[in-house]
Amino acid sequence: MIQVYHNPRCGKSRNCLAFMTQSGLDYEVINYLDNPPSFDELVSILNKLDSKPLDLVRQKEKIWIENFKNKELTDSEIIQAMVSHPILIERPIVIKDNKAIIGRDLDRLNSFL
């Protein structure tokens, strides 16, 4: 089953869900602000994205700027920051099988699916 890590307050995330609905594919919505991924789940998502932890961080979020920007952080510390503050996680994340993408670009999402 396709999984979509979704933030209902994000326009790009809402557009992604609308696209998924129009596609007719079965998918599961995970509101990651209400049900944040664990450390291990984030590691798994990063592996599926083939990305480094910093690539998944919304670096313009106030929490990031005030608490983490310009600090020397390990990958584990960055992941822990996202676990503690899930608003920092880039969205939407679409997972299909063992691959994932950030579903902001609908053309790219269409190719992925």
From TrEMBL:
Keywords in alphabetical order: Oxidoreductase
InterPro entries associated with the record: Arsenate_reductase, Arsenate_reductase-like, Thioredoxin-like_sf
Pfam hit, one: ArsC
Annotated PROSITE patterns: ARSC
Superkingdom, taxonomy of origin: Bacteria
The keyword Nucleotidyltransferase belongs to this UniProt entry's keyword annotation: no
Gene Ontology molecular function: any one: arsenate reductase (glutaredoxin) activity
Tagged with keyword Oxidoreductase: yes
NCBIfam families on file: arsC (TIGR00014)
Family from the record: Belongs to the ArsC family.
Protein name from the UniProt record: Arsenate reductase
Organism annotation: Flavobacterium granuli
Lineage of the species this protein comes from: Bacteria, Pseudomonadati, Bacteroidota, Flavobacteriia, Flavobacteriales
